[in-house]
Specification:
The protein has 393 residues and is of the alpha/beta class. It contains 13 helices and 12 strands.
């Protein structure tokens, strides 16, 4: 790697941003790189563009292009600036750059791994609206994304214009929510809802807010991680007017928690918007206790509550990210007692076919006989516990 590229990597790590232009250039105010739309316009979308910033062999470039044709590529300059070109195990590169292994489809992998469109369950009563749980509805207003994560479970629709909701579809979805009074929460996902303009996003949320039985709103987004400049003061103020509203990020690795990201996330928390995080357990990215522990500390230090750690879904072409369930269970066991309880996410499996999420839990409590248990404390070992309360089961 050239000295200028190496120097640029060190500068990028310090500032959390990557300049458009020559690989040795540093960001300036004139670059306008703190404008989220420019970050999006200048995103790297093919191997030729990527080769301007990372050293690629001819074979590596061809492999990236082959994988990109299966599932598109998009990396903001900011996010690429978090990568370490000298590290073949770089977690940022693994999550963002197409991998030839994505062309390997395993027999158990599914086009729709979470069963959003499972006709047997009727989870999709109207287009762009998933109603899996009685009290929640998931609206997919856009298929546009700020980046195309290589582990994406909705890769069948991400980035496809024909999956953007029309105004007619949005009206039908709101009509459905309005007539189903058991729905207490409306969730926006996608794609990424923060790829919508402020006007479109806030207008949609305001229409939902007017439905009397909808008590809370939620937005699932990766934009504050891959393009944190999207969190402007104007957007934060607009969202704060729609409280109670929760915003859920997807931070998978401590390297994604940068000073620039924290600065923009703080605009949300300072506006009274609570932040949650849903990570995905990914082989070679965060499947290590130390990484998950540092991620937990980094999140709560940033004012973000770890919510879920997802077992990777059976999406086509993502087998190289898959971790054994038992490894995930034991990773969470190793975190117990080494992090505050509110910094430990719940490890969950989104069951294939659309049947919902289930917690994957370590068996701390084992019944030996009626009312007699063996309990495993965080420090290890076994402690006897007698349940003296009468059984109510």
């Amino acid at each position: 790697m050239s000295d200028s590229l190496s120097k640029n990597y060190v500068e990028n790590r310090a500032s959390g941003i990557m300049a458009i232009g020559s690989p040795g250039a540093g960001p300036t105010d004139a670059d306008g790189l703190d404008d989220w739309r420019r970050q999006d316009r200048m995103a790297i979308r093919d191997a030729a563009a990527l080769s301007s910033y990372l050293p690629l062999s001819g074979k590596a470039g061809k492999d990236i292009e082959r994988a990109r044709l299966r599932f598109r590529m998009k990396i903001t300059p900011y996010y690429l600036g978090l990568a370490n070109p000298e590290d073949p195990e770089c977690p940022i590169m693994k999550m963002a750059i197409p991998d030839i292994r994505e062309l390997t489809i395993h027999p158990d992998e599914l086009e729709d791994p979470t069963g959003d469109e499972n006709p047997e369950l009727g989870n999709l009563p109207v287009p762009r609206l998933v109603h899996r749980y009685p009290d929640r509805a998931l609206l997919l207003p856009t298929a546009r994304c700020g980046t195309y994560c290589r582990h994406c479970f909705r890769r069948r629709l991400a980035g496809r214009a024909d999956h953007n909701a029309t105004q007619f579809e949005l009206s039908a979805a709101l009509r459905y929510i309005r007539t189903h009074t058991g729905i207490r929460e409306a969730i926006l996902s996608g794609g990424d809802p923060l790829m919508m303009s402020d006007e479109s996003l806030l207008s949609l949320l305001e229409r939902i807010r007017k439905i009397p039985h909808v008590r809370t709103l939620r937005i699932h987004t990766r934009m504050p991680v891959v393009n944190p400049f999207r969190i402007t003061d104007e957007l934060a103020r607009g969202l704060s007017r729609l409280s109670p509203l929760w915003l859920v990020l997807q931070v998978n690795h401590p390297r994604e928690i940068t000073p620039i990201a924290r600065k923009h996330w703080r605009r949300l928390t300072d506006s009274g918007i609570p932040l949650l995080n849903q990570s995905v357990l990914l082989k070679g990215v965060n499947d290590h206790t130390d990484t998950l522990r540092e991620l937990g500390w980094g999140l709560i230090e940033s004012g973000i509550r770890p919510y879920y750690l997802h077992h990777p879904d059976l999406a086509k072409g993502t087998g190289h990210f898959r971790v054994a369930v038992q490894k995930g269970v034991h990773l969470l066991r190793e975190l117990q007692g080494t992090l505050p309880g509110y910094a430990i996410p719940q490890y969950v499996l989104d069951t294939p076919g659309g049947h919902g999420k289930v917690p994957l839990q370590y068996p701390y409590l084992k019944e030996k006989s009626s009312g007699e248990y063996q309990v495993e404390p965080p420090c290890g070992g076994q402690i006897a516990y007698t349940d003296t309360a009468p059984s109510s089961m």
